[in-house]
Amino acid sequence: MHFHKFEKIWLTFGIGALVLFLVILGYGAFYLGTHPQSHGVTIDPQNVEAHEAFKPENLGLTKVDEDRYIVNVVASAFHYDFGVDADGNAINHIEIPKGATVLFQVVTKDVIHGFNIAGTNVNMMVEPGYISSMEVEMNQAGEFTLLCNEYCGIGHHMMYTTVEVYQ
Ligand code: CUA
C-alpha cells in the first residue's frame, strides 16, 4: 500500500486527535470519578438512619425558624420517603409557605436518583454515599411536581410527588 505525504500527515493528525480525545474522556470518567456537584458530604448508604437528619422521625418538613424550613428526604426505588404523620401514614406531599427559605437534604439508599422540583431551581443528583443539599427561597406559589430525573430502574417514571407552595 502506498500513501501520499499529505495522507500520512492527516492520518497521523486524525489518529492523534482521537487518542487525545479518548485519554481526556478516560481521565474525566474514570480517574476523577463521579461526584455530586455540591460539596461532598458523605454518608453510609446502608445505614442512613445513623445520621441525625435521616432518622425516621426527622424526615419530611421541619420548621426551624420564622420562614426557615428543612426538608429531609430518603430516596429509594421508586419513591421519596418524607416520614410518617401523627397517625403513622406515609407522608407523600409537602406544603411550604411562599417566601420560605428551605434547606433540602436528600440521600439515597440504593441507586442514583434525581430530585427535581420542576419549575424551581431545585434540581439535584442524589448519589449513594453522599448527602445532596441545597437551600432555596420558594418565591413562587403553586403546586409543583417533584420528580426523579435520573433513570433508576423499571419504576423510574412512577417516582414523583407534589410540593405545594401556598400563599
Ligand atoms: Cu428514581 Cu428515577
Automatic annotation (TrEMBL):
<dbReference type="GO" id="GO:0004129">
    <property type="term" value="F:cytochrome-c oxidase activity"/>
</dbReference>
<keyword id="KW-1133">Transmembrane helix</keyword>
<dbReference type="GO" id="GO:0005507">
    <property type="term" value="F:copper ion binding"/>
</dbReference>
<dbReference type="InterPro" id="IPR034214">
    <property type="entry name" value="Ba3_CcO_II_C"/>
</dbReference>
<dbReference type="GO" id="GO:0016020">
    <property type="term" value="C:membrane"/>
</dbReference>
<keyword id="KW-0812">Transmembrane</keyword>
<keyword id="KW-0186">Copper</keyword>
<keyword id="KW-0479">Metal-binding</keyword>
<feature type="domain" description="Cytochrome oxidase subunit II copper A binding">
    <location>
        <begin position="66"/>
        <end position="167"/>
    </location>
</feature>
<protein>
    <recommendedName>
        <fullName>Cytochrome aa3 subunit 2</fullName>
    </recommendedName>
</protein>
<keyword id="KW-0472">Membrane</keyword>
<dbReference type="Pfam" id="PF00116">
    <property type="entry name" value="COX2"/>
</dbReference>
<feature type="transmembrane region" description="Helical">
    <location>
        <begin position="9"/>
        <end position="32"/>
    </location>
</feature>
<dbReference type="InterPro" id="IPR051403">
    <property type="entry name" value="NosZ/Cyto_c_oxidase_sub2"/>
</dbReference>
<comment type="function">
    <text>Subunits I and II form the functional core of the enzyme complex. Electrons originating in cytochrome c are transferred via heme a and Cu(A) to the binuclear center formed by heme a3 and Cu(B).</text>
</comment>
<dbReference type="GO" id="GO:0030313">
    <property type="term" value="C:cell envelope"/>
</dbReference>
<dbReference type="InterPro" id="IPR002429">
    <property type="entry name" value="CcO_II-like_C"/>
</dbReference>
<dbReference type="InterPro" id="IPR008972">
    <property type="entry name" value="Cupredoxin"/>
</dbReference>
<dbReference type="InterPro" id="IPR001505">
    <property type="entry name" value="Copper_CuA"/>
</dbReference>
